[in-house]
Design a protein that fits this description.
5 helices, globular
């Protein structure tokens, strides 16, 4: 699967990668069994973001909750370098997080300062960041979810 080319936010193969990797790494489901890609994209109350495996990763997915919080449309989020979700002063800390996720598979209870399109900031609270690892052990990028944040 090449996640960089994903144009449909309800892509069933991406949904399988996103939810399957979460389940394999964390041992619990990301969504309830009856929930599908349409629910995750349009109705899930939690923010879900994913970026590809490039050296300077680009977001390939941001559900509606993520779009509302960060202030980007679907088309905008899909071309945004994910490092821009953190301010310049926070990018080193963000990179250390991503390196730890690469090494360990996932990180839970993450708190990090993030920036919206309009420049305002918020604290991402109780986040989970994980490798987008398929059933064959190949990594396709990383994903994050959180449902709590605090405006700065």
């Amino acid at each position: 699967m090449r996640i960089d080319d994903m144009k449909n936010p309800n892509d069933p193969e991406f949904f399988k990668l996103l939810t399957g990797s979460f389940k394999r790494l964390l041992g619990r489901p990301l969504v309830e069994k009856e929930r599908g890609p349409e629910w995750l994209y349009g109705d899930a109350p939690s923010v879900i973001l994913a970026h590809n495996a490039d050296a300077d990763p680009v977001f390939v997915y941001g559900n509606v909750a993520a779009q509302k919080l960060f202030g980007y449309s679907w088309n905008e989020v899909r071309i945004l370098n994910s490092r821009l979700s953190a301010g310049p002063a926070e990018r080193g800390e963000r990179q250390r997080l991503l390196d730890a996720v690469s090494e360990n598979g996932f990180i839970q209870n993450y708190r990090g300062l993030r920036v919206r399109k309009d420049g305002s900031k918020f604290w991402m609270e109780d986040g989970i960041v994980w490798q987008l690892r398929d059933e064959h052990g190949h990594d396709h990028g990383q994903a994050a979810t959180f449902s709590k944040w605090t405006d700065v």
